[in-house]
Amino acid sequence: MAAISIRNVDVVFGNHVEQSLALLDKGSSRQEIIDATGDVVGVHNACIEVQPGEICVLMGLSGSGKSSLLRAVNGLNTVSRGEILVQDGDQMVDIASCDAKTLQHMRTRRISMVFQNFALMPWMTVIDNVAFGLEMQGMSKPKRRAKAMQQLEMVSLTEWKDKYPHELSGGMQQRVGLARAFAMDSDILLMDEPFSALDPLIRNQLQDELIELQQRLNKTILFVSHDLDEALKLGTHIAIMESAKIIQHDKPEDIVLNPKTPYVADFVAHTNPLNVLCGRSLMTDVSELDTRDDMPDDMRVLNPHDNTLISVNAEGAVVAASRQDQPLNLHRWIDGQDIEDLAEGLLVMAAADVSMRLAIEIKYKTGLPVLLTESDKLVGVLLDKDFYHALLGKHFTVGSD
Amino acid sequence: MNWITEHKIPLGSWMEAFVDWLTFNAAGFFDAISISLEWIIISMVDIFQWFPPFVPMMLTAAIAWWLHRSLPLVIFVVAALLLILNLGYWQEMLETFVLVLAATTFSVAMGIPIGIMAAHKPWVYTILRPILDLMQTIPTFVYLIPTLVLFGLGVVPGLISTIIFAVAAPIRLTYLGISRVPANLIEAGKAFGATPFKLLYKVELPAAMPNIMAGVTQCIMLSLSMVVISALVGADGLGKPVIRALNTVNISQGFEAGLAIVLVAIILDRICKAPGAKEEG
Q1: Distance between CA atoms of A288 and A379, rounded to whole angstroms?
Q2: Fewest CB within a 10 Å sphere: which of A221, A356, B38, B240?
Q3: Which of A239, A337, A206, A229 has the alpha carbon at shortest distance from A275?
Q4: Separation CA A374–CA B30 (nearest Å)
Q5: Quick one: which of A82, A13, A31, A26 has its CA closest to A243?
C-alpha cells in the first residue's frame, strides 16, 4: 500500500475554479486561463505514488507547482479536483475530501512539515518550538518537554533549548524545524525546500544529517527542491514538474540517463551525474569488445594501442590479462576497501552497479579500464570513452526510452 | 441656488428625533446602564480611597519595578505621586485613574474581539473602517450632547464618550497585528494540526501581541486625554479643577491641576510601555 497516493490532482487558485477546470480540460495553457478567469493553475493532473520509506523529491523551477502540490498533501492548499490518499493505519484517507476533524487528525498524527523559511514561533524558546506540534496533539507540558528534549538531542541542540529562534544561525533554526517535525512521530514528512535558504556548506551538512536520520527513522518523505543535485542526492524517486505538470517521475539514475524532454535534459546537463550513475549504465557491453583473428577465441581486446588483452573462460569469468605481453594482476574490488591499496597496473573487477565516482577513482589509481562483473561473470568494461562520456554529460539522449 | 438653501435637509432634526425617540422608549435601559456603571466607578474610587495614600503608591511602584526593573522609573513614580498628594489632588487623581481604568477595560474588552473579527473577515473591516474614522474624527462635544441626554449628568456620559473616542485604537491595532501575522507561522500552525481556536490562541495572538499592547497603551492615553472633556458633563476627577480654573481664570489652580494630569499621563505611559519594546529597538 502506498503511503501517499496522488491521483489526477488539479490545484487552481482563484474564484472561478469550475470555469478554469473546464478550460484546463479543453487544453488551455496556464496563461490562457489567467487571461480568461484570473485563476492560476498550480497543479495540473498530477499522479504520484509514494511508497513507505521513500524519499520522493518534487523538482522544478519556481512557479512549476511543486510547492502547490506539496501543500495539497496536508491540505494547506485546497485540491480543486482529484484525490490525495494518505495512509492512516490500515486505511487511506482522502485529504481532498475529508472533513475538518479528519484533516486535523491527519495533521497532528500522520503528516508533519518542514518549511523553507523555518517558520519558528519567534516568541517561543527553542524547546517550546520543538514541542509546538506535541502541544497541538494535546500532550501535557512535562511530557512534551521531555520528548522535545530527545528530539533536540537528535539534532544536537540541547544546550540551545532556552534560546529564542533569532539567537540561532539559519542552519540551527532549520534543525529546530526538523526536530519539531520529527517530534510528531508521524510517518509522513513534507519538506518544502527546507535547505534552500541556507548557505551551501550548511546545506550539504543538513542533507547528510537528513540521510542519516532517514536511515534510522525510515519516514516517508515528500521533498520539494529546485536543485537537481539535491534531488539526486536525497531522492529515491524524483518527480520533475514544469508549468504545473509532472513531466517525468523516475528513479534518479533514470532521470539522468533518459531525460524525457529537453527541459529535463537541460537540468541534467547542469548537474554532476557521477554520484548517481552506476557503471552498468555507461559500460561497453562485453559483446561489443573486439576479438582478433590472430588470437584464440577467448581473448578480448581492451586497448589495441598498448595491446591490453583479457581472456575469458567458458563461464564468462576473466581468468587472465596482459599488457604488451606482460601479465597483469587481476584484483576483485570489495566494498569498503581502501582505494589507496590499489596500485598502478592492477586490473580491477568491480560489481556492475559500482558508482561512476568510484570507478573513476579506480581508473585514476590503476591507469587501466575497469572490468564489471555480475556473479563472477564479465558483463562489460568501462573504457576511456565511457568515462569521458560521463564527464561530458554525453551519457544520454533525450526522449530515448 | 436659492432653492438649495431654502430646502434645507433636516439632518439635525432627524438626529434629534432619533435621540428623543431613544430617550422616550428606552429610558429604562439607559438608566440601568447609567446606574450600574456609576455604581461600579464610585465603589472602585471608594475602595482606593479607603487605603491610606501610601498603599496605592507602593503598589504602583511595585508594579513599575516588576515590569521594568528600573530604579529611576520607580523613584519618578513615587515622587510624582507624592507631589500630587502634596498639591491636594489625591482624590481627584484616584477618580481620574478609575475613569481611565474603566474606559480602557471596556474599550479593550470590546476592541480586541472586534479587531480579531475584522482581521478574519474582510467584510467586517470594510463596514468598520468608516465607523472608526467617524468615531475618531467627529468632535467629542458633538456626541457628548446625546450621551448627556441619554445617560444624564455625571461620570457615565464621560465614560461613554471616552470609550467612543478610545475604542478605535485597540480595534485598529488588533486588526493590524492579526492581519500582519506572517503567513508562514499561520501555515506552520495549521500544518501541525491547530484548530481555528488554537491557531488564534497559540499563534495569532502571541504574534500580534506587540501591536495589541501598543493599542492598549494608546487607548489608555486617549482615555486620559478625555479627562477634561468628561469633567464638562460632570465626571469627577482632575478635569474638574481645570474647568473650575478656566471659569474663574485661576492661573495657579489651572497650572497645578494640569500638572497633575501630565504626571498621571507620564506614569501610565512609562508603566504600560511594553517591557520588550526596548530590545526590539
Answers
A1: 10
A2: B38
A3: A229
A4: 96
A5: A31
Length of chain B: 281
Cα–Cα distance, B267 to B60 (Å, whole number): 9
**pTM for this predicted structure:** 0.82
> How many A-B residue pairs are in contact by the CB < 8 A criterion?
60
Report the residue from A111, A115, A135 with minimal CB separation from B188: A115
* CATH code for the domain in which residue B79 is found: 1.10.3720.10
Residues spanned by the domain of B105? 13-275
**B108 domain-assigned:** yes
Preferred mutation among B187, B192, B195 to probe A, highest tally of A CBs within 10 A: B192
A288 and A261 within one domain: no
CB nearest to A117's CB, from B184, B191, B209: B184
Grid cell locating A13: 487558485
Q: Kindly state whether residues A222 and A340 are assigned to the same domain.
A: no
Residue B163, pLDDT > 80, answer: yes
CA–CA separation, B75 vs B199, rounded Å? Answer: 42
Which of these, A340, A323, A343, A322, lies nearest to A331 by C-alpha position? A343
DSSP state of B23: H
Whole-angstrom Cα distance, residue B136 to residue B120? Answer: 23
| Residues in B touching A74 (Cβ below 8 Å) | 191
Q: Are residues A255 and A297 in the same domain?
A: no
Residue A397 lies in a domain: no
A295 and A193 in a single domain? The answer is: no
Instruction: Look up the domain containing A45 and give its range.
Output: 4-271
Cα–Cα distance, A166 to B219 (Å, whole number) = 31
Q: Which of the listed residues A220, A242, A271 is the one where a domain comes to its end?
A: A271
The sign of the CA dihedral A123, A129, A131, A134 is positive
In a domain, B19, yes or no: yes
A396, pLDDT greater than 70: no
Which residues, 6+ apart, have CB-to-CB distance to B55 below 8 Å? Answer: none
Query: What residue of B is the nearest CA neighbor of A106?
Result: B193
A92 contacts A73 by C-beta, under 8 angstroms: no
Query: Are the C-beta atoms of residues B136 and B165 closer than 8 Å to each other?
Result: yes
Q: Which of A220, A249, A271 is the endpoint of a domain? A: A271
Question: Measured between CA atoms, how close is A141 to chain B, in angstroms?
Answer: 14
Q: Which residues of B touch chain A, with CB atoms under 8 Å apart?
A: 182, 184-185, 187-195, 198, 202-203, 206-207, 209
For A157-216, what is each residue's pLDDT tens digit? 999 999 999 999 999 999 999 999 999 989 999 999 999 988 999 999 999 999 999 999
* B280 within some domain: no
Residues with Cβ within 8 Å of A328's Cβ and at least 6 positions away in sequence, in order, are A308, A321, A322, A345, A346, A347, A368
Q: Please state the ipTM of this predicted complex.
A: 0.80
Give the separation between CA B115 and CA B97, rounded to whole angstroms. Answer: 25
Q: Cell 502541544 sits at which residue?
A: A135
- Please name the residue that has the C-alpha cell 569469468: A317
Mean pLDDT of chain A: 90
The strands making up A111-114's β-sheet, listed across from edge to edge, are A111-114, A188-192, A220-225, A55-59, A237-242, A245-250
* pLDDT band of B278, cuts 50, 70, 90: very low
Domains identified in chain A, total number: 2
Do A247 and A321 belong together in one domain? Answer: no
Here the CATH number for the domain that contains residue A321 is 3.10.580
Of B64, B95, B40, B106, nearest to B261 (Cα)?
B95
